[in-house]
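The following block was generated as part of the benchmark described in Methods. Ligand: pentane-1,5-diamine.
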Amino acid sequence: MKKTVKRLLCLAAAGVMSLSFVGCSSEGENGKVVVYNWGDYIDPEVNDLFTQETGIKVVYSEYANNEEMYATVEPGNVSYDVLFPSDYMVEKMINNNMLQKLDFSKIPNAANIDETFKNLPYDPNNEYSIPYMWGTMGIVYNKTMVTDPVESWDILWDQKYAGQIFMYDSERDSIMVALKKLGYSMNTRNEAELEQAKAELIKQAPLVLAYVGDEGKNKMINGEAALMLAWAGDAMVMLQENPDLAYAIPKEGSNWFVDAMVMPTNAENVEQAYQYMNFLCRPDIAAKNAEYIGYSTPISAARDMLPEEIKNSEVAYPDPALLKDPKMEMFNDPSDVISLYSSIWTQVKAS
Ligand code: N2P
């Protein structure tokens, strides 16, 4: 079995196992840290190493997207110590008083984070969050099935590829694609623009084979579809496994994101959470993690430790000028119109 397939199967098994640990009261000799992260977003050995080094047990569970995480955490009846929201979700949680300011004297390894990832609009003074991984959004395509150039989001609406397209089951990302296709900002609060984006997504729905989560990676590796909306980190995993696959960022522009570590206000294991965050910012650990999951580390000292083909990859580490291109946007929190975003997504999924 090839390395990546084994890796993905391990991730799935780790996800299942971690669920069974939730609610289990056993702790390590130095307590526990309760972590809620995206699926397929850590090397399971990193958690084991942390426990070996610190005597702190990691109680680990996973979510599929920001909205699912928020819906779980927001009622406040469950307590997590470390979460990994994306940029706009960090902003929303700060605005809703759900996060605590971090004591960086307890996270000395946070000094390793590159300047590019500091003072970003979602946490302008770096008070509440520490960048974990970052990346762009684009299209993974199978060169044996797609003969047209992949240079515009329009290809995800091409009838020729009906039934051969995977989209992510993710509200902001899908609406982003439709908005960029139309030439609008992915952070628009303009109802007419959002209505047009909804119409585009409803028009696209019959062409979409499935709105996928992490399982989409293996499906593309196996050649089950021609095109998939994909984060660059997932693209790295897919391209390593199937050389027929390639990644492109459409000319209309796209999203670039930072997923960050945060501590909720109701965290119960604060000291352990600081140790966990600090561990994940250690360059050797960040490198191990980035190599395993495929995503891009915001720590140069970690990137330097990666194999040549990863650290020099244009997919994982595009020219820094790309992130400054106004067509590449970071999401912000459209709280004032968020119900509109949610209702669009509900209607698209129901169509
Ligand atoms: C990996 C999740 C990546 C999160 N499954 C991208 N923001």
